[in-house]
Amino acid sequence: MRTLLDLAGLDGAPDAVRLAVLVLASRTPSETGVVEIRTSELGRWIGMSASYTASNVVPGLRRSGVVSVETAEGDYGQDDGLRCKVLPLWAAQDVIGHPLNLAKKEYATFWRLLQAVMGPGWTHRDGSVSQAGLIGTRTGRGAATDRLALLLLVLEARETGWVRQCGGTVDTKRGRAAATVARLLGCTASAGERVLERLENRELVLRVRLKTGSGMANRSRLMVPAVAAAHGHAVADNVQEDRAAALDPEFSDPDVVAGPGGAPETETEHQVSALPVTDVTGVAEPDVAAALHTDHPHLLTHVSSLAVSGGFSGEGRRGSGDLPDRTCARKDGPLRGEEPQEFPVNKRAGRCSAGAVAGGRLKAVGSEKAQQQRRIGLPADLGLQVALGPVAGLWERLSGWQQDQVEAAVKVEVKRLAGMLERPERAPQLLADRLTDRLEETGGNALVDRPFPWLIRRGLAQRQACSDPRCDDGIRLDTGGECENCNNVLHIRRAQRARIAAEVGRELPGLGGRERRQVLEERLREYTQREAEQAGARHDQAVAEVEMRRAAAARRRAAEEAAALERWAAACVECGLPGAAGLCPECTYRRCTDDLVQEAVDLAVAVRAALDDPAQIAALSERCEADTRALLDDVCRRQAATNQGLLAFTAREVAERIRDERRASAHSRLLRSEEADAEAEAVYDTMLRRRPLSHRAAEEAAEEARRRTAHYLLERKLGLLRAQRARMQAGRAPKRVG
């Protein structure tokens, strides 16, 4: 597990990408090693939207080099399906003793842990519901960071729920707990403090301030209550501390790195990330008490011993969801039955703010009953008050659930109307005018016997008299005037009636007025019926075309899936490994390493050889490639001595560093060339002629010109070198016998 977390700590990678690597690793099948998941489902696990996952997380996974990603496009060209391989897990398969060669039960344990911590929740086909994890409902901005932080804290916590905090000096303004979170995430102390505050607001972690003999606050301790509950420990008993000397023997002091009763840990078994906390403003020795601040009240849920089915961190309480005992309960207070009607629901919820664990999630006491109570007045939102003003009498006749439904429908309609208007603030008043008109049609509030269906189906519903979506009973919603499209429809109908009347007059000139009207109405009915039949035929044709396109798309997808399966089943072209999609990861890394070595050789030869001398180019390239290969083998042998399974991955990283160092060296060498000096002097003189006293600006412009010239010279030399090599290879190619 620690190796996986070290793998997720990618330098410079966003937290969403790091968390996505862990999610994919936990969902990796032990048999195949290939994860198939939809982009939207991956987004639900990391708390992000499907569009953000497709546009930011998936490209980040590709750039990381840790995950191999193949995508299947959706109906609109987006990355809908993903086939992912966590490459270190793939490379460690069947490697005996490798820390990433996980057994099936280890994958299952890791998967259940992620479900308990951040599972998004599901509704199964049989109607059963799997509740979301501890932080499964946290979505949007910063959700991936909070989920990753809670997962790391759960893994760092002991069975009692206490988290061993980092040692050393920390920022006294933020505390050791915030510094611990910051080092786990590899971020600044201020960012770690914000993450810790968000987790505290959700009651997922606790910061407990110990007390000295004089009663003043001393050091703070960090606790994950869910871990303690999962192992059957009482949270309230562990939290209540009177003196700093009364530390739990299983809890190591923040100043001491070693575990309880054991030797200090080695550097390889570090607690947190080695990245420093970069915004430390004021530091103090670990033994010095932190800056005093208001103590948090110890109003915490007492969790009794639980029979945990799985026995791992993060599993919540299952069962009836009855209220637990509370540490704030009065010992000499009345029994529950003595005052059955004393306190209303809202007042009871205010007196005891802690939540009751029900189905693995925290809920405010009495929240379900409070939501069902009828509200006398209109909603607090001013826009909703304006929109519902004409039907305030109907609002008071609704039940609590009906009021919630009507309020949600009004919000949706106001938002839809605001999108049609140039001045969106007019949307509530526009909806109020519609409700006023509907009431006038009905005859007033007194004639509405069923308020809820009237509001949903008649009062709030838009009635389009034509095909224009802005039309409501022949009135344009955006302008307030008559709907031009409705006028066009009326004009067309009147013109058609006049045309048919003229035809009747020409064909039957001797008819009287009554007979003429009967014939005219008959022909109008026939014309309307033909129009309806033609419209139905056009609709059937459109439906058939849509079905044809869908069938063609289904056949195309089936062909693509078959081709993809064939590609996945293809053996590696180099080593012959079956099911490697044409090239296995190790051979892929080897090819990439060869390309990087060739780039490094080209960079060294381009700045040292005479590019018009093929013999010198060949000799220097051969010698430089041999030196580069020797350097690469030596570094890889030293770095991969403890991990042979990642040798190919290590070789690619080392080759990339060698390439970058060669490029920097070549660029530095060309900065001192005659062309760069001449360009810099010319730009310097030009800037001084324009602004004689701006010597610093002239020097900066000259240095920028020197860098641009060096970059241009390097690219030009590389182009000449490759062209010369192409001519050399063409000259060595055998000539055809004509």
Structure description:
- With 738 residues, the protein is mainly α.
- Among the domains are: 2-102, Arc Repressor Mutant, subunit A; 143-284, Arc Repressor Mutant, subunit A; 382-461, no CATH class; 585-732, no CATH class.
- It is 53% helix and 7% strand.
- It has 25 helices and 14 strands.
- The chain has helices at 2-8, 15-26, 39-46, 50-64, 87-91, 104-118, 143-156, 175-185, 189-201, 225-230, 235-239, 345-351, 367-372, 382-388, 392-396, 400-420, 427-442, 451-459, 484-507, 513-569, 585-606, 614-639, 647-671, 674-690, 695-732, and strands spanning 35-38, 67-73, 79-86, 122-123, 129-130, 162-163, 170-171, 206-211, 217-223, 283-284, 356-358, 361-363, 471-472, 475-476.
- The longest helix has 57 residues, at 513-569.
- The chain is extended and about 110 Å long.
- 29% of the residues are buried.
- The model is unreliable at 240-270 and 272-371 (pLDDT under 50).
